[in-house]
Structure formats: structure tokens, C-alpha cells
UniProtKB/TrEMBL annotation:
Gene Ontology cellular component terms for the protein in this record: outer membrane-bounded periplasmic space
Protein's UniProt name: Tail specific protease domain-containing protein
Transmembrane segments: none
Domain Tail specific protease: 86-305
């Protein structure tokens, strides 16, 4: 019996020694610091078994010889948070988002618009993923230029198409669409501690809850601030596009039309790690201007029974959008 107990003690000691030898202190410190950020800031911080998550993450990273080799373990930890939105951005990925489209040799995505039947202003709002300041302003100014040109034709109402917008950077979109939204607090965030704060739009500037400011060169407001608006959404409308749709919820004569959205109505914050990578961590849940808290998808006001035919579906969307504009309800 004593011999068996002695063997067990030796095995445990060997395991601990092996763990210590295979995980340098710098690697363990890196993993623990990342977990500490999650524990202190995650929207689900009060729902997680942190003792277990620390243990399983350190175990998963035990063979890592470099910081980069801990990424899979940290990504698993982020998945365990259960918010479906948090990500780890390696330094090169984050840097690419900051340098912008042009520096990467990519075409800058731009909104487009046209009149339908000379009565309805249609605007296609594509996703914008980057954070380079001049490109953000170019997108927002382009969106307002389109709105100004369409508004000159005295539209009966507005159709804003978010169906294929899967997210990215919300602020250029919000700044541009402020021409239709007007000024005020339209989209807010509830933290894990149930504190609610709102982004604001005022004098051609969007100020987010972190204090960030997004100016417009020549801010514009549509002539008929009470014009009806149809927002087109789908299951591909996700993340920041859901925030834009949410910003219109509660606006008079405005309806969301389509299908249940992509279920990423949460907001993320970036936390820099020691190797230059970033935790893109979900820290709050979307709140609309009426005070309703989300967290999953958005149910449209007008639900469409779609088919497998893209052309037919496009017709169904536009028909429903026009129907609302012709006979808007509060």
C-alpha cells in the first residue's frame, strides 16, 4: 500500500514537473493575462465557471513553446464565453484592419442608390470592415452624398438595404445614415453590470460610448424628416448591420422587413495583448431607443415568406417596402 502511494506521488510530481518544463513562465503569464481580461470584461462574466476555464485553458496550452501556439487555447476559451461574437485577432490581422483597404490593394466598398419608379429612394449599404480614419470618412460622406442626391428628387420614402451586410465597423454607416435618422440617441449598450449608455449623433458627429468621435465633412439632413422608411434585413444581416437596423427601431413610420437577423446584437471592445494581438471581446448588449435589450437576433416588423429564387425574393422585399411607404403605420 505504501509502495503504491509512493508511486502515485512520484507520478503527480512528474506531471507537475513536466507541465512546468513545457510551459515557460512568459507563456503562462500571457495566457493568464488574456483570461483575466475576459473575466473582468466579458458580457457573460457572471455566467462563466472561471476556475474551470482557467484550468482547461492552461491545460490546452501546456505544450505551447511560443505565444502564437497559445492562440487555439485562447480561441477555445473565447468560445466557452458563449457570446458567439468574441475573437482573437493576431497582430497582422489587426494591423491590416487599421491600414485600410487601399494599403492592402483592395477596393473601398461604397454604398449605392437609385430611385424606384421615381418615387422611392433605394440605398444599398454594404459592410465596411476597416478602421482607417480617412476611409471611414469617405464611406460616410459617400453615403450622405447619395442621400442628398436622392432627396433632391423628393422621394415619398426611403428603402435601406442591409440584407447582405454581415457586419464590421458600424460607425461610418451610422454617421452616413444620420441624414435620415436625425440627431439624438438611437443605439445603446447594456454592460454585464446592467449599465446602459448610448451613442449619440449631433451636429454631424457620431460620438460612441468610449468617447470616440466620427465627423462628417458636410453633414446633411433629409428635407422630410418624417418620411417613411423601410429597412430590409435577412439572416445574413449581422453584427454592426444589426446595430444599424436597431438604430431605426422606434423611429416613426419605420418598419424592418424580411427575416430574423443574424443574432449578433452585441458590442465588442479591443484589448491589446503583450505580443500585439488583440482580444475582440464582447462586452455589452444592444439596446434600442425604446430601451429594449437584445442579445440575439431582431424579429422584423414585416416577416416575409421567402422562396429559393433570388429574383422572386427581391420582388417580395421591394413590394413589401413600397407597401409600407405608401401606407405607413406608426
Amino acid at each position: 500500500m505504501k509502495k503504491s502511494l509512493f508511486v502515485i506521488i512520484l507520478l503527480l510530481a512528474a506531471t507537475q514537473l513536466s507541465f512546468a518544463q513545457t510551459m515557460p513562465d512568459s507563456i503562462k503569464t500571457y495566457v493568464v493575462q488574456a483570461l483575466d481580461i475576459m473575466k473582468n470584461n466579458s458580457i457573460n462574466k457572471q455566467k462563466v465557471d472561471w476556475e474551470k476555464l482557467y484550468a482547461t485553458t492552461l491545460e490546452a496550452a501546456k505544450d505551447a513553446k511560443t505565444i502564437r501556439e497559445t492562440y487555439p487555447a485562447l480561441n477555445n476559451a473565447l468560445e466557452e464565453l458563449g457570446d458567439r461574437h468574441s475573437r482573437l485577432f493576431p497582430k497582422e490581422v489587426f494591423d491590416a484592419h487599421n491600414v485600410g483597404y487601399k494599403s492592402l490593394g483592395r477596393k473601398l466598398p461604397m454604398p449605392s442608390g437609385h430611385m424606384i419608379d421615381k418615387k422611392y429612394a433605394f440605398i444599398l449599404v454594404p459592410p465596411f470592415y476597416m478602421f482607417e480614419k480617412d476611409e471611414q470618412l469617405a464611406y460616410a460622406d459617400s453615403l450622405q452624398t447619395i442621400i442628398r442626391q436622392l432627396d433632391a428628387q423628393n422621394p415619398k420614402g426611403w428603402i435601406i438595404d442591409l440584407r447582405l451586410n454581415d457586419g464590421g465597423n458600424m460607425h461610418p454607416l451610422l454617421a452616413g445614415l444620420a441624414a435620415i435618422l436625425g440627431e439624438g440617441q438611437f443605439i445603446g449598450w447594456q454592460s454585464a453590470d446592467n449599465v446602459i449608455t448610448y451613442d449619440t449623433v449631433r451636429n454631424g458627429m457620431v460620438r460612441d460610448v468610449t468617447g470616440g468621435k466620427y465627423f462628417l465633412a458636410t453633414p446633411y439632413t433629409i428635407k422630410n424628416a418624417k418620411a417613411p422608411v423601410s429597412i430590409l434585413v435577412s439572416d445574413k444581416t449581422a453584427s454592426s448591420a444589426e446595430m444599424i437596423a436597431g438604430a431605426f427601431i422606434g423611429r416613426p413610420k419605420t418598419k424592418l422587413i424580411g427575416t430574423y437577423t443574424g443574432s449578433l446584437t452585441t458590442s465588442n471592445e479591443l484589448y491589446k495583448l503583450s505580443d500585439g494581438s488583440y482580444l475582440n471581446l464582447t462586452v455589452s448588449t444592444m439596446v434600442d431607443r425604446t430601451g429594449k435589450v437584445y442579445g440575439r437576433g431582431i424579429t422584423p416588423d414585416v416577416a416575409l415568406d421567402l422562396t429559393n429564387n433570388t429574383i422572386t425574393n427581391g420582388y417580395l422585399y421591394i413590394r413589401a417596402a413600397i407597401k409600407h411607404i405608401d401606407k405607413p403605420k406608426k
